[in-house]
Amino acid sequence: MSLAWVLTLGAFLFSVGVYGVLARKNAVLVLMSIELMLNSVNINLIAFNAWFRDSAAVGQIFALFIITVAAAEVGVGLAIVLLVFRNRKTINVDEVDLLKW
Amino acid sequence: MSWPAVFVAIFGAVAAISAVAVVLSRNVVHAALSLVVVLGAAGAIFLVLGAEFVGWTQILIYVGAIVVLLLFGLMLTAAPIGKHALDNQQRGVAFLTSAAVFGVFTFIIWRSFGSQRIHLNQVVRTSDIGRSLFSGYILPFEVVSVLLLAALVGAIVLAKKD
Amino acid sequence: MVAALFAQEAAGATHVANIVTRNAWIIPAIPAIAVVLIWALGKRLPRGGSEIGIIGMLAAAILSYVVLANYIGGNGPLVVKQLQWFPFGLGQKLGLGIRMDGLTAIMFPVVTTVSLMVQIYSTGYMHGEKRFTWYYTALNLFTGSMLLLVVSNNLLQLLVGWELVGICSYLLIGFWWEEKANSDAAIKAFITTKTGDIPFLIGIFVLFASTHTFDIGQIIAKAEAHQIPTITLTAAAILLFGGAVGKSAQFPLYVWLPDAMAGPTPVSALIHAATMVTAGVFLVARMFPVFEGSVAAMNVVAIIGAVTMVLAALLAMVQDDIKRVLAYSTISQLAYMMAALGVGAGNAGIFHLYTHAWFKALLFLGAGSVIHSVHSNNMSEMGGLRKVMPTTYWTFVVATLALAGIFPFAGFWSKDEILTEAFRVGYGSTAAHGTAWVGYLVYGVGVLTAFLTAFYMSRAVHLTFEGEYRGAGHPHESARAMTLPLQILGVLSVVAGFVGIPAWRHGFAAWVGVGGEVKVSSANFWLIAISLLVALGGLYLGRRLYMPAPATEPLERLGWFHTLLVNKYYLDDFYMNGIVKPIRDSISQAMYWLNQNVFDGAVNGAAAVTRAGARKLYDNVDQKVIDGTVNAVGIGTQDGSRFLRYIQSGDVQRYAAVLFGGVAVLVLLFTLVFR
What we know:
The complex is a heterotrimer of chains A (101), B (162) and C (675).
Chain A lengths: L2 H21 L3 H26 L5 H31 L13
Chain B lengths: L2 H22 L3 H21 L3 H25 L14 H23 L12 H10 L2 H22 L3
Helix pairs in contact in B: 1-2, 2-3
Chain C lengths: L5 E5 L8 H4 L3 H16 L8 H20 L9 E9 L5 E8 L1 H24 L6 H20 L3 H19 L6 H32 L4 H9 L5 H18 L8 H4 L5 H10 L3 H9 L1 H5 L2 H23 L4 H21 L3 H29 L10 H4 L1 H15 L5 H18 L8 H30 L14 H16 L11 H6 L12 H22 L13 H7 L4 H74 L7 H21 L3
């Protein structure tokens, strides 16, 4: 199969994720979009690994690390969201804008 | 087209459609469940491309743990139930930016890799991953363990009531 | 990336390595598994975990003898196996491996058998202890570490085993840590051996810098092929010897061993008589070609050995605590082994290590039996125990005769081989290397020490077992669990030496092959006669002076010399007052004064001058010229920012949008414009 089409799929998912990060109001939905972006990177890496076929499977190792880091990030991110919710009673990203002029 | 290519195309399409559903849906739970479909389709793509360990890890961790975590997050922060307007004011800008990003990436991809083909003739076994991970990449492995520990401690410290 | 690489060489062997020898890593693995099992299950078992320890050690011992069978008769196989683990730069990979040759094959049975005897003995001695299970855990951890040290094929792995045995020694010496004296002794042991470990580590790095490998086999090969410059060999050998001085309690780092007697007596038998302290001797033997390449290093080893052996023997004469007599005796005997290695008689040194392990362990266990019975370490509270504790008495006597070097007990053969070799080096008529005067020195000091050894052991035996009982308790013979190891070790003390007798063509030397060659000279009747006479003389003098236990210590007639010995040559005081206290007290006070008065004074003076000059500058230049400029800039910035700050809207997603847009633009720029 064509490598470029798989990479294009990855790019598409990435851009959809970008849209989600920029356009959603609920913080947890933003986190979900970030997960979409990370997954698209993983698809990219695995596709490259399947194309390159090195003996150490570096692409897959990298993808594993990304999954791990994503898990850690979601954990901490949700903790922050909970804290914000506790303090402000809302997790609308629009309404958390005190750090301004 | 060979069978793997067919499967990648099918799962890719499923993933793409569900991804759009994640970001456009007006019901938060529908969005979360669409995310499950995306992640599962991605895992299936990994399996087809010969990454058996990464694929199952994807299902295990992403679908099994991270999505559940996100659903818990939704529940604990009083997410709006049912249909609501979930998008903010800069929808237009967002669409333009993401289209620009997609355009640029696709352009570069086709310029550099347009003629390359994937030849699937091997499955990378878990033992190969294990061997590689525990000899050559032992240092990043240990660092990531410390990272997970830090994230764990950090999440607990942040979220506890005091 | 290939992670596992197995390499196996079997060099010119008459014997083919049997399956246990090829997989010799299993022998250190058994006590390691025992540690985990005892720790997990020990408290629930009827005998507190000692069953696991004893069965495990029995299995390890049997396997050790199977391995030894490969090497009996000489021409044993050399088995080197290793697992390449991970790369650490400089193109090297760190390995885990085993190296089996004659030397290892001898060390295995010694370590496992003595450990087995000690574990059986401890079921009686440590009966009722509240930390019984922990004791067995630590004992097995120690044995596993020592076996790891012995079987290692690269220096880093050996260092790991080395440090581990140091930790176990610390844990076991401080077993009864509720008494401050015991924990102090443990810390002293640890720090003193650590002082020796620093040059050891540097020595390893010196060798690495020259040979680019940690692998022992490759280093030895390069040393033998004269590919390492002599100056490097000298430096590395002396540095490595530093570690041996610490671990094997040679001058000047022997001060920890007598204090280490604060630990339980079976621990002293295992660690501080037969195994851990011999690690230093083992190291020198293992790296023998490195030492042989430098005459200076060999002489250092031999001279320190000679000095230590007589210093320690003199100290042993004046002790009241029976364990301290044995401790100083151990230091002295280890010095014999070091001196033997120093004059090039590696096989003789290891032969003595092997025989010494049996009779010294026996002496310690026997002392433990006595201590357990009279509840006191001091010989002034003993006496007359011969009638009450016959098994202990007879085994103790056998061990004493072996230590003194009386025909035909084990110590006779090994000690005489050392003395013969030393004399031959002095005479210049042997295949061993060495400087002539050093050989004579070692011989002379060795004969003197043999006399002293016989004397102080005879003194100990008579004060403990003969005469009338001077203490306050009710002494009795010890339990079967304690007397059985005594008997087994007693038999070994008699027969173990026969493997090295001249009539058998020095079989032992051929098996061990320290330094790869068999270098033994034939026995000399006159030398043997001299050493026998000297030993018998020492024994007789002891009996003369101590047979009816004297009211006052006869050695006090030596006056100032006696005081010097009782105060251990004031070496401990020197360390405390000469090194520890000055650094802690005087030097820090002096530095503080220097800091407050000199440095701060200069700083303050400079400050005053600067202040006056600054005032002038301030009034003229600063207020008018510079401030004016600065104010103008400030007002301009303020006006500008009042207009710019609306960019920061507080909306994170707006920032993100700009960010991603910028990324897209930059990526395009970099691919199309900047090539």
